[in-house]
Amino acid sequence: MEYIVHTENLSKSFGNEKAVDGVELKIPKREIYGFLGPNGAGKTTTIRMLLGLMKPTSGDIHIFGKDLKKDRIKILQKVGALVENPSYYPHLTAYENLEAIRKILNVPPSRIHKVLEIVRLTNVSNKKVKGFSLGMKQRLGIAAALLHNPELLILDEPTNGLDPSGIIEIRELIKSLPSKYDMTVLISSHLLSEIDQIATTVGILNKGKLIFQDSIDAMRLYAHQSVSLKVNDGEKAWRSLLARGINTTYKDDLIYLSDCSNENVAQIVETLVHNGLSIYRVEEEKRSLEEIFLQMTRGEKLV
């Protein structure tokens, strides 16, 4: 697999405090990588190191297969970023703000029209930025990050402080970037519910350590369901199932199934009824991704 970003043993210490501890990020090409973790987990510090804004205490960063220490300028020419709140000239229009950046980046003027179209700000391009909503300002910040047509876009908490409609706007914009513009996106957030709706791959940082890294689908597998049965004689039911080699758990007068497939549930119900037991309730319980995330970041064991 081709990784656009690959870090090895990436660490950053401030005095005796390890803000980032041995992180090995693997971000595949054309993926939206959700970089998750509670506030203070070390996400922004990691992002600053990826952008060359902060030197690692130890470890290596490879972006586009190149070493950031040796090829920093070449790498960063192909990276766009929006870290914390973007800054603007409020008295200038959206177009004029982008024109100031365009001159520094030395890209053709046509790119301004293109990025305004991508972030859906064409109709307000001549409006002064001081009259923009927070969502519009964030979109303008993304437009500025897209001006030089980057291959990698890094967004640090891009929906922070936005109202629900602003969040939806940014979410839809980010989701379109890999397929439409062949872009890889790294987006950090402390909100799993936000990342769940846009990311294809997830990395979870907690207390500076990367505690999970895989596809969002792999994370969903942790949210496995459990099925419990309430019967008139729980212990007798549990023993009769055990005698037939059916693995279940008996706790608090309920029987919990280890295999929750429809076929297995049907077989167990049939077995119990056949043994003259009354089944009062069959209940299914699913853990949400939010619960899984909280459990991971609390350092609890996943079962």
Extract low-pLDDT stretches. Answer: none
Radius of gyration: 25 Å
CATH top level label of the largest domain: Alpha Beta
* Known CATH architecture of the largest domain: 3-Layer(aba) Sandwich
Give the number of DSSP strands: 15
How do the strands of the widest beta sheet line up side by side? Answer: 7-8-9-4-10-11
The total tally of domains equals 2
Give the rounded overall mean pLDDT.
89
Number of helices: 11
What is the CATH homology-level superfamily of the largest domain?
P-loop containing nucleotide triphosphate hydrolases
How would you explain this protein's 3D organization?
The chain is α/β, with parallel strands linked by helices. The chain has two domains: 3-221, Rossmann fold; 225-286, 2-Layer Sandwich (Alpha-Beta Plaits), CATH 3.30.70. Helices cover 36% and strands 29% of the residues. It contains eleven helices and 15 strands. It has helices at residues 43-50, 72-76, 94-105, 110-118, 134-146, 164-181, 192-196, 216-222, 234-243, 262-274, 289-297, and strands spanning 3-14, 17-23, 26-28, 32-36, 58-63, 66-67, 79-83, 152-156, 184-189, 201-206, 209-215, 225-231, 248-251, 254-257, 279-286. Strands 7-8-9-4-10-11 form a six-stranded mixed beta sheet, sandwiched between helices. Strands 1, 2, 3, 5 and 6 form a five-stranded antiparallel beta sheet that branches. Strand 5 (58-63) and strand 6 form a beta hairpin. Helix 3 crosses helix 4 and helix 4 crosses helix 5 (134-146). It starts with a strand and ends in a 6-residue tail after the last helix. The mean pLDDT is 89.
